[in-house]
Design a protein that fits this description.
single chain; 476 residues; Serine Threonine Protein Phosphatase 5, Tetratricopeptide repeat; 4 domains; 79% helix; 0% strand
């Protein structure tokens, strides 16, 4: 009922707005003509006063008088052209009456007709309670967005002082994604991937943000990010899905199916992406008319072999840790230690397995046994003296984040020297090499190493500001 009352008022206002010019037209026309003659007569009087006062001579006055009289004649002529006889007035009145009548009836009828066709007259009123609930949801969404924006601002400010915080950059990127700020999310994830501690998840998040910023299309730079993620962790599911999507968008349906069918075989049945993945596979297969039965069977067999090999070679998996988390504390600890002990025993039989030693070191870190982690990483570094990754694992275990620079062990210094020998341009080798030189009192060497590091760092690298501050401290 309220709707129809408001609609009626608006309709009446529209009709009156159309009728007003018709009503005012005759009166306003006469008024304007009378006003024009009055102004011209006043000009004539003013001209005469100027002539008598000596402000203009007779020649100028005569010229101006002729021009004003010409205008008066023109104005009077147009006035006489207006039909003032009763017949003409009556005809004008009838025309305005007909026009007004048409407007009064046509506008409402046309409006109601359009609403009947395009609107929903039968829609019931929105209950007040539902309207209040809708307003509450809107207010809650606005409050949530403001909270996310405040969190992003505070986190970005903190990361200016702590640019090497990988988790902070990842959280900032995810926050920007929730705010639909794709470009900002890409920038945050890119800074995360430039840190020495960047992992497969960092690269996958960067690629996914690029896809979102590109309206669902996988650009070449995103494909490179996903490939980097797979190189770091071959089982990374997001990267594998998007690499298949990139092939699909490029028209390489067979290549897309190869990625997706293997991912489907490796994924748990309750994986959140499983339904979407299976639908994509079926659509692609229908497009090129292939039977998936044999392909899926072969992929399941390959997945079983990979799982068996991984169980034989690695320490506790994420699934193992999930199972352990539901156990009593003493049972959980016993389970994890049993798995780690099994890996350690196998490495005693096959001590040349460098990747095994590195996995064992990470398992000891999870168990908060730093001494054993150092020993395991040390074995990997000793058996792979030319591997920068193995040397970095050992160095990180010897000098973990948060350790005071005064407590820098001699073994760590030796590990950094080996890293610099293997790869003189390694960013961590340059940074910690400068730190070691500064601690030893060699400011020139520290400045040289850090300056070289700055030359290799991108302009937007989160580490750049920290290195520049250290160089400024040397100059001070």
């Amino acid at each position: 009922m309220i709707f129809w009352a408001i609609a009626g008022v608006l309709l009446l206002a529209a009709v009156l707005a159309l009728l007003a010019p018709l009503v005012r037209r005759r009166v306003e026309s006469g008024d304007r003509q009378d006003h024009g003659l009055t102004v011209l007569r006043d000009q004539m009087a003013e001209l005469e006063r100027d002539r008598q006062g000596g402000r203009i001579d007779e020649i100028q006055a005569e010229a101006a008088r002729i021009e004003i009289e010409r205008r008066i004649l023109t104005e009077a002529g147009s006035r006489s052209a207006v039909p003032d006889d009763e017949a003409s007035v009556e005809r004008g009145r009838r025309r305005r009456f007909v026009t007004s009548t048409i407007l009064i009836f046509l506008v409402p009828v046309a409006t109601l007709g359009l609403y009947a066709v395009l609107g929903t007259p039968g829609l019931p009123d929105f209950p007040l309670a539902d309207r209040a609930a809708e307003r509450t949801r809107t207010d809650t969404a606005d409050d949530r967005r403001r909270g996310l924006e405040d969190m992003a601002k505070q986190l970005a400010g903190r990361l200016e002082d702590e640019p090497t915080d990988l988790g902070g950059w990842m959280l900032l990127g995810r926050t920007y994604q929730m705010l639909d700020k794709s470009a900002s999310a890409v920038d945050a994830f890119r800074k995360a991937t430039r840190l020495p501690t960047a992992d497969a998840a960092s690269w996958s998040s960067l690629g996914e943000a690029m896809v979102q910023a590109n309206d669902g299309l996988v650009p070449p730079e995103a494909k490179e990010a996903f490939q980097q993620a797979v190189d770091l962790m071959s089982a990374e599911p997001r990267a594998r899905f998007y690499l298949g999507l990139a092939e699909r968008q490029a028209g390489n349906i067979e290549a897309a199916l190869a990625w997706w069918i293997d991912l489907e075989a490796d994924s748990p049945a309750d994986a959140p992406w499983q339904q979407l993945l299976s639908r994509r596979i079926d659509e692609a297969a229908d497009e090129i008319g292939v039977d998936l039965t044999d392909r899926r069977s072969a992929a399941a067999a390959r997945s079983a072999v990979r799982t068996a090999e991984q169980q034989e070679q690695r320490g506790p998996s994420a699934e193992d840790m999930e199972v352990a988390s539901r156990m009593a504390p003493e049972d959980r600890l016993e389970m994890i230690q049993g798995m780690v002990s099994g890996l350690a025993a196998r490495l005693e039989e096959d001590p040349n397995d460098v990747d095994g030693w590195r996995r064992l070191g990470r398992s000891y870190q999870v168990l908060d046994q730093p001494a054993k982690a150092i020993e395991a990483f040390g074995e990997a570094a000793k058996r792979a003296p030319e591997s920068v990754e193995a040397q970095l694992d050992y160095a990180h275990a010897l000098f973990p984040p948060g350790t005071s620079e005064r407590d820098m062990p001699a073994e760590f210094i030796q590990a950094i020297e080996r890293i610099r020998t293997i790869d003189p341009t390694n960013p961590e080798g340059l940074f910690f090499g400068g730190l070691i030189a500064d601690r030893g009192g060699d400011s020139d060497e520290a400045r040289a190493l850090w300056t070289r590091l700055l030359d290799d760092l991108p302009a937007d690298s989160p580490v750049r500001a920290a290195v520049e501050r250290r160089i400024e401290a040397l100059d001070g």
